Amino acid sequence: MFSDKVYWLLVIILVSIISFYFFWISGFNYFFDDVYVYLSYSESLYNLGYVQDLTTIPPTAPITTQNGVVLLYTILNYVTNDMLTKMQIVSFILTINLMICYLLIYKIGLLLNISKNVLYILIVALIFNFYFYGYYVTPTNDGFYISLLLLSLYLFLKLSIKNNTNYWMILLVIALLVPMFRLQGLIVYIAALISFFIIQKEYKKSFIIFIYIVLSFLAVKLSIKLLIDDTSGLEELSKMLIFYHLETFYDSFQEILANAIPSIFLNFPASNFNSDAFVYIKILFSALVFIFLIAIFIESFKKKNLIVFTIVLIVFGNFAALILFNVIIDRYIYINAIFIILLSLFYMKRIYHMYFVVGFLLLSLLSFGARIYYKQYDSINVINNIDYIDSTYKSYNLISQFPRQTYFYLRKQSILNQQYIDTNLPILIIGDEKFTNHQIEILIQKKNKIITKKQLTLIWKKENTLYNTTELYIKDNDDW
């Protein structure tokens, strides 16, 4: 068997190779979405002193308080203006961060008395889980959030065994930082507060954690005051909470059962399997997961097992956050799959541990191979389109159906309101037929005469949809 140092060295090499493939070779960087708006936020913060969405003309208010990665991009603006380079630098940092995540999962596994050899194979299986790269190395907030979540959990579990002042200081720093990356990071603190209060009856520790939670929310308020000038986007976002849409509760819960939970275990979108038979199988599987979690929640409470009780609370908290924010996205609960696997190993007889993790490794290799073989990132076409537009048009108006992508591709804002169109310049409309026709109708209603209309041979792909590029020259017959 490899020594610990050799094993972790091999982990570093393997993670680096896979990450390098996805974020430097495969073209994966050309198919992000949130990343591009974070880049625009950072450009705004760097140039204007506050966060604004610059992907459109006119700019719009930001729709998130979670601007941790925006601050990092803003710092990188002092190093380079190239958006792709900034993304790759952050992906490099997150690759290192991912290795820390694996180490923390390993250490949490040890606290659950899972053997080193079993955890070694488990970590290798996780290395071949594409979602770890797709969610935690993609240069957004999620990778930083997940490492802070795991570190805070590990420190709380260690504090349940022995008090340590240094741990408390680190947890204070994390409490102030983690909401900048994702508010769900506070679920660990809430779970720890409940566990110390109910299981260990450590009221002093619970009170300290409560103070940390209060300080964390105050830090969020301060970040809004310092970074965001227009809060109308946040006000609109708050209206998405389930309290405003109680009628969607059942549908949201069904979506969690039918797609979100199966996806985190399949390492693949479960929505791709939507025949009636598959839907029933997915819901049955998710129901069994919930039954398992409820059973060990009750058992850990009875036996006063703080470690298991805390982890189960975090899992339930992550599920509840999906419902609360009314946003059913599997990446927000992907870490739950890891926690559930660790808990399954904890309750499983040791003679089955190796069979379980080897089976999980084979499943990971299968899904990872399918992802490499079948997933095509058509970045060459995107780059060719960019080169053509850059070489053909010195100046032009851009109207795009997906302004975040075209902001990154073309380094240009997309016009939302046609009063900002310069009629002396050509117009490029990027979108499907319905979108393009609608934009042309608006132009005509403004009493503009279309002089020429030509569909270019530039096709863009976003997810499974193809978008055309139309060139227009117009004559302004009247004032706007």
Q: Unreliable segments (pLDDT under 50, ≥5 consecutive)?
A: none
Largest sheet, in brief, is: 4 strands, mixed
Topology order in helix (H) and strand (E) letters: HHEHHHHHHHHHHHHHHHEHEEHEE
- Note the total helix count: 19
- The value of Rg in angstroms is 25 Å
Structural class computed from helices and strand pairing: alpha/beta
- Give the end-to-end Cα distance, rounded to a whole number of Å: 75 Å
Proportion of residues in helical segments = 55-70%
Strand content: 5-15%
* Number of strand segments: 6
| Domain tally | 2
**Average pLDDT:** 93
- Biggest sheet, strands in spatial order? 2-4-6-5
Keywords: Membrane, Transmembrane, Transmembrane helix
Protein name: Dolichyl-phosphate-mannose-protein mannosyltransferase
Transmembrane segments: 6-32, 89-112, 118-136, 143-161, 167-199, 206-228, 277-298, 305-325, 331-348, 355-374
Topology (SSEs and partners):
Layout (H helix, E strand, L loop, with lengths): L3 H22 L8 H15 L7 E2 L10 H9 L6 H29 L4 H12 L2 H7 L5 H18 L5 H17 L4 H15 L2 H25 L4 H7 L10 H18 L9 H27 L3 H20 L8 H14 L5 H22 L4 H14 L4 E4 L2 H8 L3 E2 L11 E5 L1 H13 L2 E15 L2 E12 L4
Parallel strand pairs: 1-3, 2-4
Antiparallel strand pairs: 4-6, 5-6
